[in-house]
Amino acid sequence: MFISETPQFEIHRLYAHNSLRNYTYLILKKATREVTIIDPWDAEACLDYLRNLESSQFFVINTHQHHDHVKGNAGLLAAGAVIQLPDYLQAQPLPGHTCEHVVFYLKDESEHLFCGDTLFQAGVGNCKNGGDPLALYASIQWLRTHLLLSTLLHVGHDYFKKNLHFAQQFEPDNSDIQYYLSNLKLQEGFEMPPNSWAIELKINPFLRLSETALRQGLKRLDKFESSELVSDRDIFIKLRSLRDNF
Ligand SMILES: [Zn+2]
Questions:
Q1: Which of 149, 146, 151, 101 is nearest to 124 (CA)?
Q2: pLDDT tens-digit profile of 30-87?
Q3: Pairing, β 58-61 against β 34-38
Q4: Which of 47, 48, 49, 70 has its CA at 20 to 30 Å from residue 135's CA atom?
Q5: How much distance in Å is there from the Cα of 130 to the middle of ligand 1?
């Protein structure tokens, strides 16, 4: 599925139709038709897509080592792929979901971030398989100081609908959350375009830790003493553990 383009690149996305709802990304460099594949799930599906893109040179990179993000590596390597970070992508370590997690920036007039499982639409990654919520909190704060409002976020899984339902518990009057939930009644999450950072700031509870409405929602649900003395970091940790059991 074609997602976006810049003067030099096209961004395509494959949806895995598996229970984990994985996304794989393909970045086509228009001048050379080389393709960089990020987090391949299904090598055959990637190779089919590469044929449609008329690309015979391709690289593979992974945001982290979880099996659902590297499963397609072997098949692609057998078909001639090379594991290599191309010079037009910048890697940034952002631990939390796992200790070795990295994200990749593409900058070409517009800014694109390939987030892996650090950030999702209306949510963040879990820390249950080798992660650390405090490290994830620090990584999300790093994004807060480095992303542009217009940065497009290419996430590792489609958890959009479930994340919105989680967020709506705390902010039932948030019209942006309502808007995206009503859009998801019309189309599947994996058909939705990527969100910008500006959108995430409006709907993602993990980015809204200081918001009065969110804190009151936490208190109303009687799940947290949401006094003003509670730090953003503590709210983040609480939300992460609530989402683990949602
Ligand atoms: Zn993962």
A1: 101
A2: 999 999 999 999 999 999 999 999 888 899 999 999 999 999 999 999 999 999 999 9
A3: parallel
A4: 70
A5: 9
What does pTM read for this prediction? 0.94
Distance 128 CA to ligand 1 centre (A): 9
CA of 15 to the centre of ligand 1 (A): 15
For residue 49, report the distance from its CA to the centre of ligand 1, in Å: 24
The torsion angles phi and psi of 63, rounded to 5 degrees, stand at -80, -30
Q: What residues contact 26, with CB distance under 8 A and at least 6 apart?
A: 11, 12, 13, 14, 35, 36, 37, 38, 46, 49, 50, 53
Q: How far is the CA of 97 from the centre of ligand 1 (A)?
A: 7
CA of 48 to the centre of ligand 1 (A): 25
Residue 8 · residue 108 · CB < 8 Å? yes
Distance between Cα 175 and ligand 1 center (Å)? 30
CB atoms within 10 A of CB 86: 15
> Separation of 103 CA from ligand 1 center, angstroms?
12
Nearest to 92 by CA among 107, 100, 102, 106: 102
CA of 116 to the centre of ligand 1 (A): 7
How far is Cα 179 from Cα 177, in angstroms, rounded to an integer? 5
* SS3 label, residue 90: strand
Phi, psi dihedrals of residue 222, rounded to the nearest 5°? 60, 35
Annotated domain spans of the chain:
2-244
